[in-house]
Amino acid sequence: MPAAKARPAAYHHGNLRDTLIALASARIAKAGAADFTLRELAAEAGVTHVATYRHFSSREALLAAIAADGYRRLQAQEAAAQEALGTDHWARLLVLPETYLRFMLDTPGHFHVMFAHRWSDDATYDEAIAAQAESFALLERSVADCQAAGVLPAGAASRLTAAMLGVTHGLASLWLSGQLDIVMPARRRADRFILETLKASFEAFRVSDPELWRAK
Amino acid sequence: MPAAKARPAAYHHGNLRDTLIALASARIAKAGAADFTLRELAAEAGVTHVATYRHFSSREALLAAIAADGYRRLQAQEAAAQEALGTDHWARLLVLPETYLRFMLDTPGHFHVMFAHRWSDDATYDEAIAAQAESFALLERSVADCQAAGVLPAGAASRLTAAMLGVTHGLASLWLSGQLDIVMPARRRADRFILETLKASFEAFRVSDPELWRAK
DNA sequence: GACTCATGTTACCGTTGGTAACTTAAAAGA
DNA sequence: TCTTTTAAGTTACCAACGGTAACATGAGTC
Questions:
Q1: CB proximity B96–strand D (7 Å threshold)
Q2: Minimal CA–CA distance to B107: which of B188, B172, B38?
């Protein structure tokens, strides 16, 4: 949200890095990561395209910065949402897919880069991995907490975690790529449809036979 | 698998269209859709890059053709797998995520274009929509069949379908983008891990309370 | 008030996707 | 069998792109 585009006459932009990230995310949300060009982006920010190289070593590095920013924000939003819920383990678990979904709806550009982009150079992308792992750890810890409290069936936590992450991420990305319309009855309130499907799925996992999730 | 690269001296290639699709898919599998260039692709096929425009009106149109080809092949593989199973509705349903996963593992390039690519021009992509809808219809019909046979809980078929599609697609694409490693205990035999998680999820859905899936 | 250096600029490069005009050879008609 | 048509290649060219080198500006420090 940094509206640092205020002084067009100034030689120095002021906050070009964040501005570029925000502008790029908006463009990616519309037409994908393949579409945007550094030149158009820089022009929109009021600088030449070469100025971008002061903040990102390459176009791919800008994408990596967007991904890292996204993982950090997602993790922060998830942690904040859980914070407000005290020690109700089940509620703390259920708030995660909801936050995940809202993050995708609010910042689809970030989401797309985080999950749909194929990195040609893994090294540039390494910075994002840490923040990403934290977000996943949050889910796994919540699952373990629920298992310890007897709210979720015992067994391999990784299986349950994978199933929950899978259905959440799957519905979110299918919706983002417009491919959920086919299976959805009404287009209106798609977020409600997804959210209720997620809740039903989590509930089904909750009451399921522990034997299902035991490692074979 | 058309190995039409046999006659390098010939002026006419013979089967350039299919060759380009196969080569592009292989390149996309390695480094994503943003990476490959028409010129490199054409050179690999033994022609100049302008020759590609005889078969695809643009780079994006080639991607759309890959997607359409993918949806057709996925649907055909799913239908063939179900064919062999007669009237066992539950087995016919369970074979779908397995086929879906195998398709992703066998042709990751196709899968990436089908589900992770953002289309800048929807018109070019329209051809793929039909084949895509058929694949989804196959799942929804199997769910309805299971419900009619009393194998799956009654209720809105669209919810159950969305949940199953979601967990299947979610785990497949998380694995494809390398983001499932974090939540997985052992890297070896990841396909087994995913497949068993999918089976456990479907089983959890099967024995769940019908009230969960009723439209609200 | 001079120095420093982060942050801009212009000039330029090879490569890319795409168009126009021409060439080749396989198939169709007489 | 010879001519004609046409699908499928070619070379020549273009503007735009990502990226590099060398230079310019101006805010903060001593």
A1: no
A2: B172
CA distance A139 to A79: 10
CATH topology classification for B67-208: Tetracycline Repressor; domain 2 (1.10.357)
Give the Cα separation of B59 and B53 in Å (integer): 9
Q: Do B129 and B75 touch, CB atoms closer than 8 A? A: no
Q: Please tell me whether the overall predicted TM-score, pTM, comes out greater than 0.90 for this model.
A: yes
**Nucleotide closest to A19 measured between CA and C1':** C7
> Can you give the distance from the CA of residue A52 to the C1' of nucleotide D28 in angstroms?
23
In the numeric block, the tokens 């977020």 are attached to A191
Give A1-55's CATH code, choosing from 1.10.10, 3.30.1150, 1.20.58, 3.40.1350.
1.10.10
Residue nearest to nucleotide C24 (CA to C1'): B11
Chain B positions touching A70 (Cβ under 8 A) are none
User: Looking at residue A10, what is its pLDDT?
Assistant: 56
Tokens of A114: 């985080």
Which one has a higher pLDDT value, B146 or A132?
B146
pLDDT at B10: 53
CATH (one of 1.10.1040.10, 3.30.70.100, 3.90.79.10, 1.10.357.10) for A67-213: 1.10.357.10
Shortest CA distance from A200: residue in chain B: B212
- Whole-angstrom distance, CA of residue A176 vs CA of residue A117: 13
pLDDT tens-digit profile of A39-63? Answer: 999 999 999 999 999 999 999 999 9
- Chain A residue whose CA is closest to B185: A158
